[in-house]
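Moderator note: this is an archived Q&A kept for reference. The question asked for a predicted structure of one protein chain; the sequence and the answer are reproduced below.
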Amino acid sequence: MTIKNVALVGGTGTLGAPVLKALKASEFNIFVLNRQTSKSVYPKTTVITVPDDLDVDAVAQALRENHIDALIITIAGSHVESQKKLIDAAFKGGVKRVMPAEFGSCDSADQKTNEILPLMKGKKVVRDYLVSLEDKEREIGEGKLTWTSLITGHFFDYGLTCGLLKFDVKGRKAYILDGGNIKFSGSNLDFIGKAVIKILEKPQESANKLLYIHSNYVTQLEVLAALEKITGDKFERIDQQSQAELDVVRPKMLNGDREAMEEVVAVWGVVASDWKDKEGFANSTLGLSEEDLEQTIKKVLAEL
């Protein structure tokens, strides 16, 4: 299998923008799928305009006409039906590889995670749908549709700026969970972009797999020490118990409170996201190396 033409959906989002940047710097021919009424603009990028309702036949035709080999989806993972339409279009349009909107802080293949976070169940539904298409025959000569799901841990650099890692960097506060010595996996946004490129460059090795990566493998206390060293400031430490936090915010999440959902993701992404010894941990397979914690923090602080 050879991948040359790559289309991205969601290229202006928190993750989509750095993935698009990585794709544009690669050897692939890059296209962006854009809905008809979208106001997103993509300078120096070939745009494929598709109907707002993602009509499967229309999207499939657009993918086929542009000879798209791989479709990367970076819209919100909660958009299950939209992803299914895009996957159906990829299947009908002869696309060889789909990467769904997995890219998770948390592990959607873990039963306890799915019980705690309904959002992850949706990601599993999409992945199961892709699995169901693995062995389905397409038109003669098109081969079968393959997929790769990528679980990244918290978006590490982004998470430092918005409280996702349980730090208020501007306010110099650290919310330390369960003592702060739990190792967790996280990935800087540019690192995720690199991982996407590596997956496309190694289509055989990455076919029909759920892969885990991280650029940073740390504890909250290690992050706190680095923050204090680099800023020269003492952070206020607020100790929390993860279960007590979840007991407070999960009921709010289940009632539709989006901020509560983000807090559940934040907590669970610290206490239950250790990929190091997990089957499917793919740093070595993809040729990716962990990144320096202090350098990451310096870069984040410079941009704040």
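Archived answer notes: The chain has a mean pLDDT of 95.
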